[in-house]
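ok trying this again, last paste got cut off
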Amino acid sequence: MQNILKKKSYKKVIFYTFIVICFIASVYFVYHNEAFYDRSIAEVIKTELEESTPVTDMYENDDHLYTQLITAVLKNGEEKGRLIHFTNEYSASGAFDQEYHVGNKLFVDIKANTNKNADLTGTILDVKRDQFVLLVAWVFVFALLIVGKRQGLFSIISLIVNALVLSFALDLYVKHSNISLIFISGVCILLFTVISLLLINGFNEKTYAAIVATLIGIFISLLITSLVMWITSENGLRYEEMQFLTRPYRTVFMAGLFIGSLGAVMDVSITMASSIFALFEQDHTISDKALKTSGIDIGKDIMGPITSILFFVYISGSIPMLILYLKNSSTLGLTLSMNLSLELARALAGGIGVVLTIPISLYTSIFFINRKRAK
């Protein structure tokens, strides 16, 4: 027994040492990877505020315009090591521009200069943010590993695999427009559900019950949503934000709605299945009636928070546009209809899926429990 514990501890030490080495190596690489970029990168070494001007627009919105002089050193390319100067104009609101600080690394465009000895000048294209993205990603990875341990590791693997599947699916649709996006989304949902639940929860009756309940719940939710949209002729849905698409916007909306509801439905199904199976494991003689009563109580407890999460997730992305419309004297009705109609439709569709999945998960779990009893 002690040898087994020692082996497990030894494996943990090796694993966490490997993770730390990967963390250090990736951080070092991302802070010194300028040579791998085709675009010119410059690091800011000096900034100076040259001018500040208060402005007021026709709707009495106050703002400030600033002019900033920037000196940077080039980090890659033929001009590596040379100084380059920029003039940056930005506003206090920072909607389409921003202030730069010492230490920022910028993607730049170098202006041609016939005088070889003169200082270089150019324009700023964008900020190099990969180091910040990497650090946030590692915080997420460490949090999953510390809290979830083995399941956290499989959650990371599941996330990576699902991201690759989605990327491949979208690439397939872009290159082959004759393939139905709804069909591609359906296949993705099947793969996402199976991969995520099997990797995280393993091959057992609880996982199988959650997979079946998730798929049934999400497809019934889509069917009801499609039926309601057909009956109402999609009145109230504003597709203006999709006006630049060259593909059928209704199909794209339905596919996004399809995948967007999956997370909440999957969460409900695995929570219900885990709870019902936990009750059965504690008392193998528990009756189906008791399981149903307990399952309904559990479903009532999780139904409200999950639907609220869906609402907040979809609505939060529209807050900047809501403020923009209202600050520019648009009416409240126009502002809400232009920016929230699709988000509310997605939230309602996801809520339908959540509510339907609760009884579906309950009876699916009881079905698999009875199979387990029979064995």
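PB: full thing came through this time. Strands lie at 40-56, 62-74, 83-91, 105-110, 120-127.
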